[in-house]
Amino acid sequence: MKKIFGYFKNHLFYVQLFALATLISAFIPALNPLIDYESGKNQMLFTIFADLGNLERYFESILSSFSFFGDILYVTMLFFYVGWICYLCGLILIWSKSVGGKRSIFIGSLIFMVVYLAEFSVYYSINIELLHNSDELINSASAVWTHIPLGVYYHFALALGVFIFSLLASEIDFRAVWYGLRLNWIHRFDGGVHPTSHKNTRSIPIEKLPPQKEMIYPLLQHIGAICTPLVKVGDYVRMGQKIADSESAVSVPVHSTVSGTVVKICDWDHPTGNRIPAIIVENDFEDNRAECFQEGSADYEAKTPDELIEIIREAGIVGMGGAAFPTHIKLASAVGKVDTVIINAAECEPYLSSDHREILENIDDLMNGLRLVRYIIGAQRMFVGIENNKSDAIALLHKRLAKSRIRLVILKTKYPQGGEKQLIRAVTGRVVPSGKLPADVGCLVLNVDTVVAIYRAVVAGEPLMRRIITVAGHGVERVGNVSARIGTPFSAVLDHFGYLPTTKKLIMGGPMMGIAQYSLDAPVIKSTSGLLCFTKEQLTMDRDVSCIRCGSCVSACPMRLVPSYIAQYVKSENFEKVNELHAGDCIECGCCSFTCPAKIPLIQYIRIGKQKVQEMNRQTGGKRS
Amino acid sequence: MSELIVSSSPHSKDHRNISTVMGCVIIALIPAMVGAVVYFKWRALLMILISVVSCVLIEFFHNLLFKRPQSIHDCSAIVTGILLAFNLPVTAPLWLPPIGALFAIAVIKMLYGGLGKNMFNPAIAGRIFLFLSFSNYMSGNWISPFDAVSTATPLQYLKNMNGELINITDKFTVGDCFLGNIGGCLGETSGALLLLGGIYLLYKRIITWHIPVSFIGTVALITLIFPRYQDISAWQYMLYQICSGGLFLGAFFMATDYTTSPITPMGRIIYGIGCGLLTVFIRYFGGYPEGVSFAILIMNFFVGFIDHKTIPKQFGGERHGLWHKATKK
C-alpha cells in the first residue's frame, strides 16, 4: 500500500501520465485542438492520413498564402508535430530507462505552451471578428472565451501539467540557476576575453623542491626602491635572516631562505629582463633558523594592528598575484578606511593553478589568515571571489565559509577577472575612479597566497620564503605545481620537471601578462607564479597587418579604452592625443593584443604611449588627466 | 641549449585572424547564395563566380602593378565579389560584374591603400557606380523567381502604384517578401536566408548587434508610424518595407563592414540609426524606390566623425552627461 502511495508521489509518474494522455487524446476528434474553426474538419487526422501524399501542396499553401491569422494555425500545426514527437521520444526514453527522456518531454511541453498561447490569441481574435459580424447581441467578453473549442483548454491544461511536473521531476538545482544568473548579470565587468584555460595542473598536488647549492637573492623583488645589502661576502646567514633592506617607504626587506655563507654580491640576471645586484648564498643544507621564528605566536589579538603590519613588513610580504606591491603599505593605507576586503582567488590567467592548489591544500592556514586580516583591517564585509572553473575549491570553500560571515562570490571564467578594479566591480559593483586606489572606494584586494603568507608570518614568525609555482607547457616532460624556495634558479625548477631543449619561449607568470625570460640563471622571486615552457607550436608568431577597424579591441578592453586609436596616435607620436584617450588607465592586461585579428601588438604601443605620457607630464609638471 | 625568444606579453593569441573572419562572412553568405541559385537558376551562380574571380584577379594584378605585398589571401576580395554580385539583377549582362569589380577593388579599395584604409564600402560603391553608369541594365528589367516572368520589385509597387488600384497584397504577400519569392537583385530578395547568415555572424561574434538592430529598428519604427499606402495596415506596410529592397543584406553584411563602420558601440548605434533614417527618406522622397545602398554610402562619410565623438568614457572615468551634471548638484 505504502509502495503504491509512494509511486503516486512520484512526479515522473504524472509526467508520463499527462504526456500519454496528450498523445492518446490527439486521436479523439472531440478533444482535438486542431479542429478547423470553419469546417469543423479534424485538421490533424486530415493532414496526417488523407493529405500525406500531398505534402508538397501543403507546404506550398503555407508559403504562398501567408495571410496573417489563418496561417498561424497551419504553422502551429507543424509545432504540434514537433511537440508530439518530443513526447513520444521522451516516453520511449523513460520506459527504456535511457537518459534524456525528461528533458525531451520538458522541451515538448514548452513547445506546446507557446503553441497554445498563440492558439488562444488566434481564436480570441477570430471570435471577436465573428461576434462583430454576427447580429446577435452577446456579451462579448465572456462569449469570446466560450467560443474557443474545448480541446484547446483541455490540451493547455495537460501541457501545463506536464510542464510543472517535469520541472519538479527534473530536480533542477534552482540555486545553481540563481548562481548562473548572478554570474552573468550581476557579478560581471565590461570587456574581457575568453582564452583557453589549459589548467591541466590543477589536479596535481604541490611537490616540494629541495633547496639548491647556490641560492640567488636579487635585491629588488617588489615594486619600489632597491634594497641595500646588510651582509658582507663571507658572512654566515641563517634561514629566514634579513639580508637586505631599504630606508625607503615603498620597500620590503629580502630574506635568506637557506643557511650558509654569502659568497658573492654582484649583478645577476633578473626575471624582469635587467641585471640587478643580487646576494648569492652557498647552502650548507642545515637550515639553521634565524631568531625571528621564535617571535611568532598564535595569540595575535594581543598585538595592535600597527604592530602586526610592522611584522608583515619585516617578513617581506608583497602581493603575490604578480604585481608584487608591498602588502604592508596596502594594509596601512586601508586600516580605518576600508569596509570591504576581497580575497582574490580568481586566478584568471590560463595555465596557472598555484592559487587553486593553495586553497585545496592549505585551507586551514587560509581560513585563519582571513580571520587575521579581518582583525587587522576591522572590515565589516569580507568576500572571497573565485572563478567558476574551480569547482572543487568552490565546494571546499563553501563548506568552510558556511558558518563564518565571509561570503563566497562565484565569478564567471573570464580574463582579466583577477584584475583589481575588475574584481571590485564584479564582486561589489563599485567602480574605482580613474587615477584612484581601491581604498578610495573602501575596498582592499588581497591574493590567496598573500593571506596565507601573512598568517604564517604572524603566527609562525616565518618570513616569505616559499612560492608555489605552476610549471606547464610542452617544453617540459611533465607538468605540475611545485613549492620552491625563493632564490632557486629557474634551471633547477625546470630540471625537476624535465626541461626539454625544444622550448622556444620561457615565461615567468601566465601567458597573458607574464614576462619572457632570456636566461635560465634568473632565480625564483616573490612574484613568480608560474614558469611556462612554450614550444614552437604553442607560439603564435603571425606578422601584423594593417588595422581593419573591426573594433574587437574596443569590446575586449576591460577599461573601456580604444586601443586601436591609441596605437595609431603612438605610431604618429601624437602623445597629447594619447593622453586624451586615457592611455594612463591601461592595466596592460593584453586583451586587445590577444583578440586583434590583424595581430597588431596593441599593448606594446600602449606601453610606449604610457611611458611617453608620463615623461611628458613629468617635464611639464602637468596633472595626469 | 636552444635560444629563447623574448617578446612582450601576451604570449598566446586568439586563433582568429583576418582570413578566418572573412571565411566566416563567406560561410554566412552561403544560404543566400543557394537561395539565389534556387530562385534565379544557374545564371546567378555564374554571375557570382565571374564577380568573385574578377575581384580577386584585379586585387592580384593591382598589387603586382604597384609593387605592394600580396594581399589576396585575406579573402576580403572574395567577400566584396559576392556582395557585388548580390547587388546585380540576374538579367544584367555578364560583362557588368567585372566593370563593377574594377571600380570597387581598384579605385575604391586599393587606391586608398587596401583593406582597412578605404573610406567607402567597395561593394556598395561598385554597385552605385554601375547603377548610375548602366542604369538601363541595373533597373527596370526585374524578373520573378522560378518562372522568370518580367515583374517589378515590391518597393516599386509601394512607391509608384500608390495612385492606381493595384493592391500589393495581390502581387506579393509578406511571406513572399520574407522568403524571397519576389523580383529583385540576386542576393537581396530572401530576407530569411540573409537573416540566417546574420545570426551566424552574431553567434560567431564577427559582428555585434548594434548596427543591424538599430538600422532595421529605425526603418521599422518610421514606416510603422508614417505608412504611405492606403490599402494595407501599418503593420503590414512595415513588414513589406523591412522585408524588401535589400535591407537585410545592407544591415547585416554591408553596413557592418569593419573598415567603413564606427568601432565604438555608441557610434555603431548612431551609424545604424543614420542609415535607417536615410533609407526611409530616400525611399519616401527620393527619385529611386531603393535607398539602402545610398544610405550606407552617405553614412560612410560620417564614420570618422562619429568615431571621434563617441569615444567611450574609460572605466572609472568621470561622466560628463547632462544627467550626471544634474544629479551631482
Written description of the protein model:
The complex is a heterodimer of chains A (about 625) and B (about 325). Chain A is α/β, with parallel strands linked by helices and about 625 residues long. Chain A folds into four domains: about 170 residues; about 160 residues, Ubiquitin-like (UB roll) (Roll); about 160 residues, NADH-ubiquinone oxidoreductase 51kDa subunit (Rossmann fold), CATH 3.40.50; about 70 residues, no CATH class. Chain A is built from 22 helices and 17 strands. In chain A, the strands form four sheets. In chain A, strands 1-14-13-17-15-16 form a six-stranded mixed β-sheet, with helices on both faces. A four-stranded antiparallel β-sheet of chain A has the order 2-8-7-4, with no helix packed on it. A four-stranded parallel β-sheet of chain A has the order 11-10-9-12, with helices on both faces. In chain A, a hairpin with an 8-residue loop joins strand 5 and strand 6. The N and C termini of chain A lie far apart (about 80 Å). About 5% of the residues of chain A have low confidence. With about 325 residues, chain B is mostly helical. Chain B has one domain: Orthogonal Bundle (Ammonium transporter fold). Chain B contains 17 helices and two strands. In chain B, strand 1 and strand 2 form a beta hairpin. In chain B, helix 1 runs antiparallel to helix 10 and helix 2 packs across helix 3. The longest helix of chain B has 24 residues. At the A-B interface, strand 15, strand 16, helix 21 and helix 22 of A face helix 1 and helix 9 of B.
Total strands of chain A: the figure is 17
What is the first-to-last residue Cα distance of chain B? 67 Å
Q: Biggest interface pair, residues each?
A: A-B, 75 and 51 residues
What proportion of the residues of chain B form beta strands (DSSP E)?
under 5%
Strands ordered across the widest β-sheet of chain A: 1-14-13-17-15-16
Count of domain modules of chain B? 1
Largest sheet of chain B: 2 strands, antiparallel
Coarse shape of chain A: elongated
Which ranges of chain A are low-confidence, i.e. pLDDT below 50, for 5 or more consecutive residues?
35-56, 62-70
Distance between the termini of chain A: 79 Å
Helical segment count of chain B:
17
Q: Helical amount among residues of chain A, as a percent range?
A: 40-55%
Q: State the domain count of chain A.
A: 4
Report the radius of gyration of chain B as a whole number of Å.
21 Å
Helix content of chain B: 55-70%
Note the beta-strand portion of chain A: 5-15%
Mean pLDDT of chain A: 83
Question: Quick one: overall form of chain B?
Answer: globular
Please tally the β strands of chain B and state the result: 2
- The number of helical elements of chain A comes to 22
